[in-house]
Each structure stands twice: as C-alpha cells, then as structure tokens.
Amino acid sequence: MNNQHFGSCLCGSTKYTLSGDFQSFFLCHCTRCQKGTGSAHAANLFATDSSLTWLQGESNVKIYQYPNSLHRKSFCQNCGSALPTYIKNINCVVVPAGSLDSPVPISPTAKIFVSNSASWLKNTGYVPCFDGLPT
C-alpha cells in the first residue's frame, strides 16, 4: 500500500496525488459513462482506503452527481478533463486512467455493462491504425 500516483488535467491547472493501491480497473460501457466521456466507454481505476490530495487547482474541480446513483464525475472547470472523485458510500477514489501522469500500474480488470456498448464500437478490427494523425 501507499504507492504514490500523480495526475493532472489537460490544461495543467489542476494536479493531484493518490496514495494507495488500485484494486480494479474497469472499462465501463454504460450509457452514463458514454455520455460523461463522449466516447465508447470510461476507463476508471478504483482505489479503496486511499488518500487523494490536490496539489494544485482544487478550486477548479467541479463535481457532477447523477441523481439517485453512485455515478459521480469530477472534472476541471477550465478544460473539462475528467479528474478523480471520492465516492463515500463505497470508501473509494475513482481515478480516470487518462488523468494519470505516472504509469497505470495494472491492466484492465474487466469490461462492464457491455450490453450497452456503442453500436459503432463493434467490428472495429478492420479499422486502419496510425501512430499519428493520418494524412
């Protein structure tokens, strides 16, 4: 326990550290995560009994709580980047994997709510891959 993980938002105005270990890493395909990310799924790490410390820009962090659910999203009010959020009911810090500046220490544990997967995500094996923006 007490591994240090560092992260920030896209504009760099908000920075954080998380002390603790990640127990799971879910790729969530639920419709709430699709709406919240604007993509096919969310990629969230879960850390119970961990400590989240804002190093800079805590006043930039806004929180959206979906009514009557555990779905909670923290984000930078300047650039909109997803940021960690503490969910008290389950004593857990949920960390968007893409917000980490340090390496993600575990591989995804599971894809969840796959019955809600975006239809355009299916059969993408034929889609060309590029290391950068195609010309």
Question: Could you explain how this protein is built, in words?
Answer:
The longest helix is centred in the first third of the chain and has 7 residues, at 31-37. The chain has a single domain, classed as Beta Complex (Metal Binding Protein, Guanine Nucleotide Exchange Factor, Chain A). It has 135 residues and is mainly β. The protein starts with a strand and ends in a 23-residue tail after the last strand. The strands form 3 sheets. Strands 9-10-4-3-11 form a 5-stranded mixed sheet. A 3-stranded antiparallel sheet has the order 1-2-5, with no helix packed on it. It is built from 1 helix and 11 strands, in the order E-E-E-H-E-E-E-E-E-E-E-E.
Topology:
Blueprint lengths: L3 E5 L6 E5 L4 E5 L2 H7 L4 E7 L2 E6 L4 E5 L6 E5 L5 E2 L1 E3 L4 E5 L13 E3 L23
Parallel strand pairs: 3-11
Antiparallel strand pairs: 1-2, 2-5, 3-4, 4-10, 6-7, 7-8, 9-10
Shape: globular
Based on CA atoms alone, the radius of gyration comes out at 15 Å
Number of domains: 1
Question: Which series of helices and strands comes N to C?
Answer: EEEHEEEEEEEE
Number of helices: 1
Low-confidence stretches at least 5 residues in length (pLDDT < 50)?
none
Number of strands: 11
Please name the CATH topology: Metal Binding Protein, Guanine Nucleotide Exchange Factor, Chain A
Largest sheet composition = 5 strands, mixed
Helix share bin: under 10%
CATH class: Mainly Beta
Biggest β-sheet: strands ordered side by side in the sheet:
9-10-4-3-11
CATH architecture: Beta Complex
Protein name: GFA family protein
Domain CENP-V/GFA: 5-121
Keywords: Lyase, Metal-binding, Zinc
InterPro entries: CENP-V/GFA (IPR006913), Mss4-like_sf (IPR011057)
